[in-house]
Amino acid sequence: MPEYTRRSLIAHANLIGFASQLAAQKRVKGREVEKGASTSKNSMKTVVKNLSAEISVTPAPASLEELRVTVSVRNESSSAPLRFNAQYFTAPALMLKFEDSQGKPVPTGGPPMPAHDDGKVGRVDLSPGQAISHTYEGNLIFGAKLRPGKYLVRFLYWNGTQFPGEWSGTLETPRVEFELGAGKR
Fewest Cβ atoms nearer than 10 Å: which of 16, 36, 52, 114? Predict the structure, then answer.
């Protein structure tokens, strides 16, 4: 394995672990402490350093194929553009964290192979008020079937960039809930 690929894999694994540790530090007894969070049960929003993330979920999909999780990231600044690293924005294994009704993590499919980061690929310049969105499809999120029941999902993005001008920090939404199989008759 080439040295740059090995280093990239190690760095990618470290980023995932660090982001999870940061998220755990921000929770107090299962309650989110982020400021600016909305209160709707199936849609939540948070704002950090002029960048917002809003997550919404199909509240009662009958099957995994009907589950949709949509995340929108928006530049909330009234005057300054923001550069957002969207290189892995469409990878549910890296961006979405699921839990069952008992609070136990629910694994998703595997993450993508990390690519060389040149500071250009996958970057999106968001003008004030502009957003980028992605809808994750249930049958493409998980590596295995989920049992019917209640689940929670949140969006967790971390960027400790080394590239000038790029937004850096942690953007984590509060959890939203859905009940798989609730629409079955």
Answer: 36
